Amino acid sequence: MIDWTDRHCRYFHRQISRNALLYTEMVVADAIIHGPRERLLAFDAEEHPVALQLGGSDPAKLAEAVRIAAPYGYDEINLNVGCPSDRVQSGTFGACLMLTPEVVADGVAAMKAVSKVPVTVKCRIGVDDQEPEAALPELLLRVLDAGADAVWIHARKAWLKGLSPKENREIPPLDYGIVYRMKERWPDVFIGINGGIQTLDEAAAHLKHVDGVMLGRAAYQNAGILADLDHRFFGAPAAVPDWGGLRDRMMVYAARHIASGGRLQHVARHMVGLFTGLPGARRYRQVLSVDAAKAGAGPEVIAAAFAAVDFSGAKAALSA
């Protein structure tokens, strides 16, 4: 979710679900050590609970990145061993680390030694010609022995050569069964599942077998599915979503961002998929995509976009 789940996206999603654990984009350990730390790590207090996702393979650098991030107050630190992009591979981290589970374990141990919050791992079921039934358990054995508190498994292989990141999300077949088997093997370990999950009904089905479900592009491209999440999975009372309240909160947030030197587009671009499937959604998307990008655009653009949507029957449509 690089370039997608930035602080503005997370703030927006938090206004829809108060309980979901939000993840940052993957941030490279070297960037935290040598780059603009405040820009990379700062976030709004309303985002909690929020996890910092790190990329890297050098245990010392990973540990230093965790130390630097500690004062920002993240609720979890996650090591990404699943991203298959070329620029990630060139830095020897991401999915290519599936080939060297001992390196991943060393990184986890170094992070655990300096972290006061849970350290978790996100991985694939294997890469290239690896046999998942052998490669995945080996990785889990090593990272759990190193102290990992949880493992999130994207239920697909990644092909490091020949497929683009987009193709790696679509072409390798999903194998949810192997993730279920890992949970059966490690019943006392938190194991979450990721990959191709599009609806809350699908999430509920997976939760019969594993401890957590991670939604990526489904939540980004149709954020409205988050509206019923707190009721279905966290015991919140059933309620009609307060879309007017969401509009007003995002307008206040956007105004604050603009006043600090930002642009409306930085915030509005993450809101485009909110009302997918509702009457007026096309006009809503158009206003946010076009008008929010204009020089001097202000929070009133958000109000204009919401005004284009017909909310009658919205709850039923968004809960589907």
From TrEMBL:
InterPro entries: Aldolase_TIM (IPR013785), DUS-like_FMN-bd (IPR035587), DUS_fam (IPR001269), DusA (IPR004653), tRNA_hU_synthase_CS (IPR018517). Its EC number is 1.3.1.91. It comes from Rhizobium sullae. It catalyses: 5,6-dihydrouridine(20) in tRNA + NAD(+) = uridine(20) in tRNA + NADH + H(+); 5,6-dihydrouridine(20a) in tRNA + NADP(+) = uridine(20a) in tRNA + NADPH + H(+); 5,6-dihydrouridine(20a) in tRNA + NAD(+) = uridine(20a) in tRNA + NADH + H(+); 5,6-dihydrouridine(20) in tRNA + NADP(+) = uridine(20) in tRNA + NADPH + H(+). GO terms for molecular function: tRNA-dihydrouridine20 synthase activity. The record marks 80, 166, 169, 282, 285 as: Interacts with tRNA. Its cofactor is FMN. The keyword Metal-binding does not apply. Keywords: Flavoprotein, FMN, NADP, Oxidoreductase, RNA-binding, tRNA processing, tRNA-binding. PROSITE patterns: UPF0034. Belongs to the dus family. This is tRNA-dihydrouridine(20/20a) synthase. It is an enzyme of class 1 (oxidoreductase). Catalyzes the synthesis of 5,6-dihydrouridine (D), a modified base found in the D-loop of most tRNAs, via the reduction of the C5-C6 double bond in target uridines. Specifically modifies U20 and U20a in tRNAs. It comes from the Bacteria. FMN binds at residues 53, 122, 154, 194-196, 216-217.
